[in-house]
Amino acid sequence: MLLAKKKLKKKISTFSIxxxxxxxxxxxxxxxxxxxxxxxMNLIHLKKNKNSFFRNIFDLVNYHDGPIATxxxxxxxxxxxxISDKGFKISISGTGADxxxxxxxxxxxxxxxxxxxxxxxxINEIEHWKLHISPFIRNEGLKNPYRYIDxxxxxxxxxxxxxxxxxxxxxxxxxxxxxxxFCSESLRNRMMNEMFYEVVPVILKHDDLNCMYNSIxxxxxxxxxxxxxxxxxxxxxxxxxxGYQKKILRDISKDFLIDDIRLNRKKRGFNASINSILDLKDxxxxxxxxxxxxPINEFIDLKKLERDINFHQIPNHLSKLIFNVICTKIFLxxxx
Length: 336
Hints:
This protein is mainly α and 336 residues long.
């Protein structure tokens, strides 16, 4: 977007989701960038609407021919619709940047393992991490900078609190996590697994289907083959430095992106809480989710889940689970 604005000298249109949940609300940063670059800013504010939620989710599950993996891809469908409504036929996304240039908090810990033999650099980078990154991290498992130095092959963090949700499964958990060994370098190997197996394929599947549903062509320039192959040759020390991830992208944008944005270390994922799109205190909604006659009961103990939920304050891992239950329930009942 920044390079297109500079090179084409045209007004660029951007489309963004605004969630009232502070964890995901990027409005202030979006407004700063838009004002700085004189962009045509299009905002979509998430609202609770039971009828539109169920209408949309039924349509999406039917079109995707399967459950929607996360709330992220549900709200992405709003972007696709807005882009289409504005008359555009092609959208450009930043998919792949996190997996190429480092973009997740656990990448810091893999980076520390990768540079562990460079003691002075390791100590310096951990100090920057403690000062600038650790205060933002909510996952307690990610607060130990020596996690992968002590145990390079530990991958429990990938599942975060999802292990807590296994108690609601009627089938148990039998799938074993597998990671392909592309290389011996911890950070690079993790990002390559995300690129080819774990993250990017799921994003592209849902994003492409959402775009096709709205007659939009989805483009992801970071996934250009030549760019990716070149980036694989970049030493890890240039990817993270002094507590900054995506250090290369920050450096190349210094002449046309304000420092308030360029040097902001806090990451806000493209996500939303289910509380932002659906009122779970609504009895009709509860009756739909916890339908004990639904075929989903073969897989999920809905009675136990319903007993455990405080509908006034739902933790993040249960928010995700409820969304998964809704999508899977719709899919199973459609195909039952």
